[in-house]
Amino acid sequence: MKNKPIYVEIGIKTEMDKLWEHTQTPELHQQWDLRFSEITYLPRSREDERQKFLYRTRVGFGLNITGTGETKAEADGLAGHRISTLTFGSEQPISLIRQGGGYWKYKPNNEGVIFITQYDYRTRFGMVGQLFDRILFRPLFGYATAWSFDMLRIWLEKQIPPAVSLQRAFVHYLSVIVLAVLWFYQGLVPKLLYPQSGESMLLQQTGWFPGWEAVILSAAGILEMGFALFMCLSHRRKWVYQLQALLLILLGTAAVSGTPELLQAPFNPLTLSLAMIVMGVLATGTITDLPNAAKCLRKPVKTNKPVNADPKEGGECHGIHLSASVGQ
Asked: 3-class SS at 93?
C-alpha cells in the first residue's frame, strides 16, 4: 500500500509579498525550514526555465544528506493565488529519499495568507525502506514540516527570528526532559525498586502513616512516574510547573520535618527541589510563542475533486499532479 503524501496548511497574518520573499529566497528559507540546512540556487541561462538548486541537510554525527532539485513559481490566476512546484532527489546511497516532488500554494484571505504544502517521495532500500518510512521517517518528516511552518508564522507575525525560536525550543524541551527524567527516577528507583535505601525510613520518621509506609511509598512512586508522563504530555501548560513547585515544596517539607539533618547532606531535598523549580521556571518562560506543529492542518479540507484525484494514489490535489513529480 502506498503511503499518503505529506500535507501541511497554516494561516499566517502577513502580506503575500513578504511570505513569498521568506519562502522563495534561499537565505531566508533555510533559516526556518528544519528539512534543509543549506539551499543554493544555481545560475539560469533563461529567465523562463525552472530554477535548479542544491540542498544539504545535517543529520547529526557529522553526516550530511545532499541533493538537487528544480522549482518553478507562478501565479495561478485564481484571486491572487500563487503556486511554487518543485522536484527534488538525492543520489547519496545513505539517503532514504530517492526522488520526490510537491508544491507550495499561497491563498490570500481576509486575515493574511493560507500557506499550503503537499509533497510525496520515493524511498530506497526496498520493503525495509518503505516500512521504516511509514512507521518513523514520514511521520517525523511531516511533523518537522508543520513545526517549521509555525516557526515561519511566528517569524512573520511576531518578528521573532527562527534562531531565537530554536534557542527557546532547546531550553524548553531540555528542561522538560530533565524534569520528566528526575520525576520518573525518583518514583521508580528509591520508592519502588530500593525503598530500603532510605525512603522507607524517612517516611517512618514522619510518623504519618504507621504500618502503611510500604503501601504509601509504592503509591507515591507510581504517582511520581505518572506525573513525569503527564508533564511530557502537558508541557505547554504553565499551571503544570506551578503544580510541580507546590508538590516539591510539600515533599521537601515532609522529608525535612521528619529528618532535619537531611539538610546537611550533599544532595538534599532543598537543593534538588530548588534546581527542579528553576528548570520549571525556564520551561514556563519559553512556552509563549513556542512553535507548535498542532497549529497546522495535516489533511486537506474535502472539496469536490475531479475523478481520479485521490492524493493517496499520487493523483491531482489543488490542481497539481504529484505522480508526475515523484516519477513512475
From this structure: coil
Answer whether 243's CB lies under 8 Å from 208's CB: no
Q: Is the alpha carbon torsion for 161, 177, 133, 140 positive or negative?
A: negative
Confidence of residue 7 (pLDDT cuts 50, 70, 90): very high
Q: Are 119 and 101 in contact (CB under 8 A)?
A: yes
Give the model's confidence band at 315: pLDDT under 50 very low, under 70 low, under 90 confident, else very high: very low
| pLDDT value, residue 269 | 74
Provide the CA 212 distance to its chain's centre, in angstroms.
Answer: 44
For the chain, report the end-to-end CA distance as a whole number of angstroms: 15
Residue listed under C-alpha cell 528507583: 189
What is the pLDDT, as a whole number, of residue 205?
Answer: 64
Pairwise CA distance, residues 105 & 253, whole Å? 57
Beta-bridge mates of residue 101: 87, 120
pLDDT, tens digit, 9 for 90 and up, residues 228-244: 999 999 999 999 999 99
C-alpha 303/C-alpha 213 separation (Å) is 62
pLDDT above 70 covers what percent of the chain? 82
Count Cβ atoms below 10 Å from residue 282 Cβ, excluding itself: 17
Among the listed residues 231, 223, 235, the one whose alpha carbon sits nearest the alpha carbon of residue 215: 223
DSSP string, 141-183: HHHHHHHHHHHHHHHHHH---HHHHHHHHHHHHHHHHHHHHHH
Please choose, from the candidates 70, 77, 44, the residue with its C-alpha nearest in 3D space to the C-alpha of residue 55.
70
DSSP 10: E
> What is the per-residue pLDDT for 327?
47
Q: What are the tens digits of pLDDT across the range 147-159?
A: 999 999 999 999 9
DSSP letters along 258-321, please?
A: H-GGGGGSSS-HHHHHHHHHHHHHHHHHT-TT---GGGSB-SPPP--PPTT--GGGT-EETTEE
